[in-house]
From TrEMBL:
SUPFAM superfamilies: Homeodomain-like, Tetracyclin repressor-like, C-terminal domain. Keywords: DNA-binding. This is TetR family transcriptional regulator. It holds the Pfam family TetR_C_4. One of its GO terms (molecular function) is transcription cis-regulatory region binding. InterPro entries: Homeodomain-like_sf (IPR009057), HTH-type_TetR-like_transc_reg (IPR050109), HTH_TetR (IPR001647), Tet_transcr_reg_TetR-rel_C_sf (IPR036271), Tscrpt_reg_YsiA_C (IPR013570). It comes from Scopulibacillus darangshiensis. The lineage of its organism: Bacteria, Bacillati, Bacillota, Bacilli, Bacillales. Signal peptide: none annotated. Residues 29-48 bind DNA. The keyword Secreted does not apply.
Length: 193
């Protein structure tokens, strides 16, 4: 059985999300994470080299699940605009459903050192490829303007979605993030068509 499929691995990752969200990355202690996961401190080092490795792995695991859920939802859609809206909705739904994960992804990962940020960017590539796929399909089908710079469009799309979530986190989840899916998607789609 792979390390990632072991129950303790998942318990530790989930506990790390909670502890980092509640305390901040720099104040989150391995001992707190271990206690929340119900494991001995040393058990964490069986799975992770250090707290930074845990943060990167946490993001890798959660982002992998995040992308997988978006891809599953998009797979059932035929229209490019519907795929685009679904991507935005799923992004917002998943983070709205897990406030601690939203805090970690929107705030704690951004305060990390350069090495961690580079590894986080590598992990984000799969999500950016998902956006690229929708963009390219839209251009091929004539839904989006053919002359759009895909790289710039991808940055604008991801940046808008990401900043919307960050603003929601900074405002302590005081409004319905998911309700913003259609207005955000509409704004972005209108810029592409």
């Amino acid at each position: 059985m792979s390390t990632r499929n072991r129950p303790k691995f998942k318990l530790i990752v989930d506990a790390a999300v909670d502890v980092i969200a509640e305390n901040g990355f720099h104040k989150a202690r391995i001992s707190k994470i271990a206690k929340r996961a119900g494991v001995a401190d040393g058990t964490i080092y069986i799975y992770f080299k250090n707290k930074e490795d845990l943060l990167i792995t946490l993001f890798q695991e959660k982002m992998g699940q995040f992308i997988e859920k978006i891809e599953q939802e998009i797979a059932g859609k035929q229209e490019v605009k519907e795929k685009f809206l679904t991507m935005v909705q799923m992004h917002f739904k998943q983070l709205a459903a897990d406030h601690h994960l939203a805090i970690v992804t929107q705030l704690e990962l951004r305060q990390s050192d350069t090495e961690i940020r580079l590894k986080i960017n590598d992990i984000l590539r799969d999500y950016l490829k998902l956006i690229d796929g929708i963009l390219e399909e839209g251009k091929e089908k004539g839904v989006f303007r053919a002359g759009i710079d895909s790289r710039l469009a991808r940055q604008m799309i991801f940046g808008t979605i990401d900043e919307t979530v960050t603003n929601w986190v900074m405002n302590e989840h005081k409004y319905d993030l998911v309700a913003l899916s259609e207005p955000v998607a509409d704004l972005l789609i209108n810029g592409l068509t």
